[in-house]
User: What shape does this take?
Amino acid sequence: MSYLDSLNNPQREAVLHTEGPLMIIAGAGSGKTRVLTYRIAYLINQGVEPFNILSLTFTNKAAREMRERIEGVVGTEARNLWMGTFHSIFAKILRFEAERLGFQSNFTIYDTEDSKSLLKSIIKDKKLDDKVYKVNAVLSRISSAKNNLISWQAYMNNPELVMEDDASRRPKIGEIYKTYRERCFQANAMDFDDLLFNTNVLFRDHLDVLNKYQRKFQYVLIDEFQDTNISQYAITRKLSASYQNIAVVGDDAQSIYAFRGANIQNILNFERDYPDLKTIKLEQNYRSSKNIVNAANSVIKNNTKQLEKVVWTDNEAGSKIELIKAVSDGEEGRLIATSVFQEKMNSGLSNKDFAILYRTNSQSRSIEEALRGMNIKYKIIGGLSFYQRREIKDLIAYLRFTINPNDEEAFKRIINYPKRGIGNTSVDKIVVKSVENQVSVWEVVSNAKKYFGTGRLVTALEAFTVLIKSFMLAVKNKDAFTAATQIAKNSGILRELYDDKTIEGRVRYENLQELLNSIKAYVDNPEIEDKNLEAFLQEVALYTSAEEKSDEDTVTLMTIHMSKGLEFEYVYIVGIEEDLFPSQLMLSSRADLEEERRLFYVAITRAKRKLFLSYALQRYRFGQLKPCEPSRFLDELNPQYLNTAATVAPKRFSTGGNSIMNTRMQPEKRQPARPSNFKRVAVPKKHNASPNFVPSEASLLKAGMKVEHLKFGFGNIESIDESGSDRRARIKFENFGEKTLILSFAKLMICE
Assistant: This one.
């Protein structure tokens, strides 16, 4: 088989070892996608039915690329694979088995905005303070519970969880969780977490269903295994229990999604669950230069919890890593924009060869301003997705409600758009009737006389019911494009936007036409068998903004989290400063710090040819210009891989105009360049926290108290500023002098 000839020895071994549990530890840039692809192709060539292979990924893009590669080896048989994201595969299974859980197969998949909207309604209905029960915090709490397979019943009976909620002054979260689940069920809807949670419930409570899928999936493959959460791993363990042919591919050094529930212990303890496990290490990096690979290794070796491996490369040494030091964040942006321009000119590169990565989205502002100022085109990944635009969500809501008229969130979005004389008060009455009678909103709306008697509201609801029923008929008899076009026209949305002659109105109308174009492309795709509207909506529901395609020649701006799995010729990692990267919010434990270090490792390994690291001496944070200290991660980089002599200093402009040819990058005059691992003699040694250190509740902190901070040690609270949205304390530390900290983030322990 010729495709095997392109593999190195460990890769080939991973492809050929088909029976029994297998863990492939794949270092950055080591060709894991090729190994997964060829492994599946080899199984098919050995006579395994594609229908009996389950391959799970984390993005639709990865699944598409793998399927295309496999098809190039084995032909159209690859189309019969069960391959896709965890959510898409389990949504498919849940649609087949929905009635076992009391759902209908046409259930809606709520996105984050739908979930937030429903939670806002519940918090309002329960007359709770939305400043205490902030919807993001409540949703995060419920999501975490589901990802750890904790039902609302188990949640309310768990003393530890109840105590945590009491301590955070949100004792009603358990009740909100219960009501949220009930309202989703009533609306025949599941959110993203439910797709995993309910699959676990399905397999737990219906052994005949579990046995059916265990027999079906004789081979289970999981990509990016280090990113799986407890729920995902529980499902795949159950599915692979009969044949034990489970192959996982991952890199513990790239586990960066703990905030989304990812559990690094899944990969660290995989051998414990499978004692006869075969482990193969892919350690040769094909992506990056030697300097970049070695620099990344010098950082990640500082983590204590990791699987042993040594990533290496046969690539050329390449350029050393450049350090960019700026006076401020504004200057950092200008220096980076200048550098991008000069590298493009000097090396004949395109914009798309460059990526600028940052820890938080707020850092993009100064970069964007500088790029615009130099007329360099850029695109932000992870901004507003096409499918999150208002007009798109409006039409999608009509399509969703037509398929699933129990969908309360879709109903609230469309009932008075375009206007039909049904205001918010009337909508609240409908929802209250629905909740009181434990029926869907559609039951109330389609039987308006039964619930409201007579009047203007009843007349309007009856007209709405006739409209939706006509849409339902269209969906039954027509393909997705024809049905969606009819709904767009007859709902009045197209006319509403067409009549809006403002620039914004024209853009929104064009966006709606683009949505219809995408549905037409879906219907015309010969590889898609199911061309109905329900199938299209499921694909949209599982779509992410990171997967939107762009053929434009643009510099890519994104958070490091969004960059995972991508690679670029030239990469800039910006804002490498203490409390920014590593984040101040991730310094409460060693586990948090090690995740931040893994995030830095991921950022470094995105670069193929050249890497730039930048930091500023002062930066605007929380509306104030704050002094900054270079990150400890710069100290951990081995200086032999850094071009410290070429540290870029604040740029100088000649008086001859603002042409780029007049821009100079000159050596720093205030201070000689120094290696990144220099010892800051003026800074005291790191404080060793007390063994019993537990942060106190921020609301308990008062002026005059003695406190302990993880980094700054012991100090006295001089004063507390109550003005503004965040309480701030001015604290005089014994060894670090005076600091002003935001109390909600500071993690201080009161000393008796």
Confidence is low (pLDDT under 50) at residues 649-684. The radius of gyration is 28 Å. The chain has 31 helices and 24 strands.
